[in-house]
Amino acid sequence: xxxxxxxxxxxxxxxxxxxxxxxxxxxxxxxxxxxxxxxxxxxxxxxxxxxxxxxxxxxxxxxxxxxxxxxxxxxxxxxxxxxxxx
Length: 86
Description:
The chain is mainly α. It has helices spanning about 1-15, 15-50, 70-75. The protein folds into 2 domains: about 1-50; about 55-85, no CATH class. About 60% of the residues lie in helices and about 0% in strands. The termini are far apart. The mean pLDDT is about 85.
């Protein structure tokens, strides 16, 4: 208990330093919460997609879609129930 009065006195001595320290702690907690929320939001789409979904990409580039002629070949694969294009 004897240290609480010393701590309280030092906190009141430099009000600007105390305010900035508490403010930086609040901002850090806010940013941490925001990053956790973004991580959960991004992983939510993957969880909702299910385990029976397969995504394929072009080997040349991620932004180039697969040719539309692959649709018929993909539908002939056993176990494939549907093909869509993004």
